[in-house]
Design brief:
With 91 residues, the protein is mainly alpha-helical. 82% of the residues lie in helices and 0% in strands. The mean pLDDT is 82.
C-alpha cells in the first residue's frame, strides 16, 4: 500500500506530537507533584515550623528538582532521536 504525501504528513506530525506530549506529560507530572503539600499540609498553616520539618520539606523539594533535571535532560535526548527517526522513516 502506497501512502500519499498528505497521509504521510499527518502520520508524521501525529507521531511527533505524541512524542512531545509524552515528554511534556512526564515533566509536568513531576513539576506539579503536590505530594509534599499533602504530606506536610498541617505544617504550612502553623505560625512557626520546626527546623526538622523545614529540613524535611527542603530535602523533598531537592529530590523532586533532581528528578526533574534527570527526566528533562534524558527525555529531551530520547525525544529528539525519536523525532529524527520518525522524519527518516515517514518520508
Amino acid at each position: 500500500m502506497k501512502l500519499t504525501n498528505n497521509t504521510k504528513f499527518f502520520i508524521r506530525w501525529f507521531m511527533i506530537l505524541l512524542v512531545i506530549g509524552v515528554y511534556l506529560g512526564k515533566v509536568i507530572l513531576i513539576a506539579l507533584d503536590f505530594g509534599i503539600t499533602i504530606k506536610y499540609k498541617g505544617s504550612f498553616y502553623e505560625k512557626s515550623v520546626s527546623a526538622e520539618t523545614c529540613r524535611a520539606i527542603a530535602e523533598l523539594y531537592e529530590s523532586y528538582f533532581d528528578q526533574l533535571l534527570v527526566v528533562s535532560f534524558s527525555w529531551v535526548l530520547i525525544a529528539m532521536v525519536l523525532i529524527l527517526i520518525i522524519y527518516k522513516k515517514v518520508r
